[in-house]
Amino acid sequence: MTALPNRDRRAERREDTRREILDAAWAVARQDGLENVTLRAVAERVGMRAPSLYSHFESKNAIYDAMFGQAWSEYLDQIEDLDASLPAAPRKALLFMLQTFVDFCTADLPRFQLMNLRVVTGFAPSPEAYAPSLRVMELFRRRAAALGAPNDEDVDLLAAAVGGLVDAQWSNDPGGTRYIRLLPRAIDALADDLGLPGPKLRRKR
Amino acid sequence: MTALPNRDRRAERREDTRREILDAAWAVARQDGLENVTLRAVAERVGMRAPSLYSHFESKNAIYDAMFGQAWSEYLDQIEDLDASLPAAPRKALLFMLQTFVDFCTADLPRFQLMNLRVVTGFAPSPEAYAPSLRVMELFRRRAAALGAPNDEDVDLLAAAVGGLVDAQWSNDPGGTRYIRLLPRAIDALADDLGLPGPKLRRKR
DNA sequence: GTCTATACACCGATAGAC
DNA sequence: GTCTATCGGTGTATAGAC
Question: What's the average model confidence in pLDDT over B18-30?
């Protein structure tokens, strides 16, 4: 009976290659647009021929799928250990949380398109890739409940409104702040409606 | 000196053909998805070969452009003569206006994607096609001002939030009402923030 | 297992005959 | 104005070298 190595070096290398391919895909997406990602362009960036990618991903949509999961996981990592640094005031805490999402989404257009819009037709995230986005939503619900907004509908409305602000920002004023600067006002309005304690984030006009 | 006919029959026929092509493009978009529209599929539907479309549109993006303008014009027509039938209560009037937009956007996914999202990369609407969407926004601002919301920022926030609701509806619960049913609550919250007179659309929890 | 070479069917677009 | 023929590109599939 031979001893098994305690690390599977082959699997590690495989995982490295997969990550390298995904990095290349992100780079191409940022340069040429999310749906202008081509297997040939990705392959060239990692020093391969296009068909070789099929040794690591079973299709182009599988690459999109992995990118989708990667993006949400990255955001999840960023907010997971944030409980300690949340402000005490409920509205400020809400703003802080949502602002991290807005910042994350406005920093990278193809990432936002992949995470929040259904830009790539024929692509629907697999349950596995969808999981981290559900965890984000769950975490958000838990924190909102702790702040005094226990209702799922409230969180849905807030999430949809924030997504709408980011989308409008990218669509109508890319690089500017015309829409996303309205986030504090949106939170105040909703918080008032929910009966969340003050103080208000913005002065009333 | 020969008399000119008072109608340019040739131009009329040309316009008819253009409209026929656009109708076919919408049909393909609804069947196969907005970005799976191919010139060959559109041409087949109108009984042509693909290259013949170039006699009527200078590129595929020009077809998208015309569709974009068509969609917004259609919505503009629908709401232009609505002043008379608006409810008297400000919040009800606001809800009525926004509900027409939500209904219009939830009725047809490719149309919504073309109007509100930037799904087709490399496509940006021409100034000419963009005009009717600006007229819709202008009309909306005018009516909101008449209802007591004269500030551009308020209208921006409301528009972005409504767009977010529709997008979340299509992305996470297509065919359902989970998000769009929150419209009255969203309006109440914003209206309270703006100091718009009641009565409220929804009972407070 | 990993990669290359090659092929296929499709895409948007153009040239030129009629 | 519509056609055929064709171009360079695409995603995808498979055979086979190593």
Answer: 98
